[in-house]
Structure formats: structure tokens, C-alpha cells
Amino acid sequence: MYRQQILDHYRNPRNYGELSDATFSHTGENPSCGDEITVDVVLNENEAIERIAFSGDGCAISQAAASMLTSELTGMTLNELQELDRDDVLDLLGVEVTPMRIKCAVLAEKVAQDGAKIYHGELDELEQTTIEG
Ligand code: FES
Questions:
Q1: CA of 59 to the centre of ligand 1 (A)
Q2: Which of 55, 67, 97, 103 to mutate to test the pocket of ligand 1 (most atoms within 8 A of CB)?
Q3: 28 CA to middle of ligand 1, Å?
Q4: Which is the most buried residue in 22, 34, 47, 54, by most CB within 10 A?
């Protein structure tokens, strides 16, 4: 059933696309395969995520995780976003993920978190997002 849900999000990704009025955008790469995801975020006046979209290519796990995660992030503040960890994404996916595929699973989360850090001036904009092992 969970596998079915992953395939559904992969084939019909939620929040896929670009936001031309984004408050911030960030792109990051999974270094083990070269796949990239871009996350666009529109914030409201309370620094909560009003709209979020992702674009880019990747495997079923990375695309499903991005689709599920962006659905969860709508309405969340940037501080709440920073409190998420890889287990939150793995819980959303609901399947065992091999160590190699964990980088796929957390790609969108890391890109969104790094984008928020750059927006807050906590990270150099030129610093490339990469996923640690
Ligand atoms: Fe590239 Fe999963 S194989 S993101």
C-alpha cells in the first residue's frame, strides 16, 4: 500500500512546477547520481509557507519524497521547517529506504532547508547543497 502511494506521488507529483513570485528559490544536487531539485517558496507576512513548488528530475523515491514533503510544508513556518530531520521524510515515505537511497529521500528537504538558511543569511548563497552520506 505504501509502495502504491510512492508510485502515485511519483506519477502525479503534487506541487510540481515553478513559482514566478517566489520569495526564495534554491537548487541542490544528489551527488551520488547528479539529479537536481529546485524548490520555490512563497512566504506570508508571518514567515509561514504560503505556497511551495518543486521541479527537477530524479528517481521515484526523490520525486515522491518531494511531492509528499511539499504537501506537508504548506502552512509551516521556516523555523518549523528547520526542525525537520531525515526521519520525518522517511516516516512520510513509509518504506524501508536503503542507505544509498536516503540521499534521494532527503534531497527536497535539504534543498528547502538550505534555501531558508540562505534567505535568513545563515548560509552563503554560493554554497552548493549536497547531501551527506
Ligand atoms: Fe538520483 Fe535518486 S537516483 S535522486
A1: 5
A2: 103
A3: 12
A4: 54
Q: Is 30 in the pocket of ligand 1 (CB under 6 A)?
A: yes
Domains of the chain, each with CATH number or no CATH:
4-119 (3.90.1010.10)
Q: Whose CA is nearest to atom 3 of ligand 1?
A: 59
CB 39 within 8 A of CB 79: no
What digits encode the pLDDT tens for the residues 7-58? 999 999 999 999 999 999 999 999 999 999 999 999 999 999 999 999 999 9
Q: Is the CB of 102 under 6 A from ligand 1?
A: no
- Residues belonging to the chain: 133
Residue 127 has pLDDT above 80, yes or no: no
- What does the pLDDT look like over 70-116, one tens digit per residue? 999 999 999 999 999 999 999 999 998 998 899 999 999 999 999 99
Amino acid at 31: P
- The CA distance from 85 to 71, in Å, is 16
